[in-house]
Design brief:
This protein is of the alpha+beta class. The chain has 12 helices and 10 strands. Strand 1 and strand 2 form a beta hairpin. Keywords: Transcription, Transcription regulation. This is AraC family transcriptional regulator N-terminal domain-containing protein.
Length: 299
């Protein structure tokens, strides 16, 4: 595993020589490189799993912290708003990582072919665990494929299917198995999460969201909080605030415009909730982030 991790780090360093997040030629593969620690990055994680080949990172979701480092895996089978910080990176030993977006439809089809125990439906949307040699080998082959563009159309989907198989049959794959199992409580909560992600600007009633998820209101609240660490309303607020922060940082919007664009009717309410989330009012927070260059915010 140590040799495989070193090879993965070497491949990423070779393919990505500048800082940033780079979509690879292989569909769904992202490569990351950072030369110094990053604090305060916020993003909405897509269904994906990520591997740190060199360095270390901490992801905060729903008030809980998930540290992961070299040769460990972070699995997020649903969209979740997250704050993250890279804790170990330098110019001589940069943070190097990769992420593979999960094709949940492919996982759902694959699940029907597997004879695995689904296990307990309860659990968090974020899981950190060790990399198995088999999963690491599949990831290595996917990253190597990035250097052979002629092979990508034929081999990429096969390797992504193998990676999904390794995840679904792993000890950390319980939540993923449940989410792609139609009719499970986790699958229903995932429907509510997806609705909120798409319609985060719109006001909603909890009973309507519960009906969309095909759950009772109290059942939805219980399982939603268990999976994401927050209530549906808190989840929506995070989606709005993260997008507003991105608009101010990346598009240069002022606070009032960003508030309006993300569904807020009151600039005062927006400022109050923004300060509660990020520890400073919008304008000061954005100025501080731009001053220190922490523009690692991803949508």
């Amino acid at each position: 595993m140590s040799e495989a991790r070193l090879e993965l780090a070497t491949l990423i360093a070779k393919q990505v020589q500048e800082e940033g997040d780079f979509p690879a030629a292989v569909p769904g593969l992202h490569l990351y490189r950072r030369h110094e620690p990053v604090v305060g990055a916020c993003q909405v994680y897509e269904p994906a799993f990520a591997i740190v080949a060199q360095g270390a990172k901490v992801v905060d979701v729903g008030g809980e912290s998930f540290p992961f480092g070299e040769a460990s895996c972070l699995l997020t089978p649903v969209h979740v708003p997250a704050l993250s910080r890279i804790t170990r990176a330098s110019l001589t030993r940069p943070y190097l990582a990769c992420a593979v977006l999960l094709d949940l439809q492919m996982a759902r089809e694959l699940m029907t072919e597997l004879d695995v125990v689904k296990g307990d439906e309860r659990g968090h949307a974020v899981t950190v665990g060790p990399m198995s040699p088999e999963l690491m080998d599949a990831v290595l082959r996917l990253v190597r494929l990035n250097e052979k563009p002629g092979d990508i159309p034929v081999l990429a989907s096969l390797l992504q299917r193998e990676i999904l198989y390794r995840l679904l049959t792993s000890t950390m794959g319980g939540m993923l198995r449940q989410i792609v199992t139609t009719g499970s409580q986790s699958h229903r909560v995932a429907r509510a999460v997806e609705w909120l992600r798409v319609h985060y600007r719109e006001p909603f009633r909890t009973d309507e969201l519960a009906e969309h998820a095909r759950m009772g209101v109290s059942t939805l609240h219980h399982h939603f909080r268990e999976m994401t660490g927050s209530s549906p309303l808190q989840f929506q607020k995070q989606l709005r605030l993260f997008e507003a922060r991105r608009l101010m940082l990346m598009n240069g919007m002022d606070a009032a415009t960003a508030a309006f664009e993300t569904g807020y009717e009151s600039a005062t309410q927006f400022s109050r909730e923004y300060r509660r989330q990020f520890g400073a009012p919008p304008r000061r927070d954005v100025v501080e982030l731009m001053t220190v260059g922490e523009l690692a915010l991803v949508s």
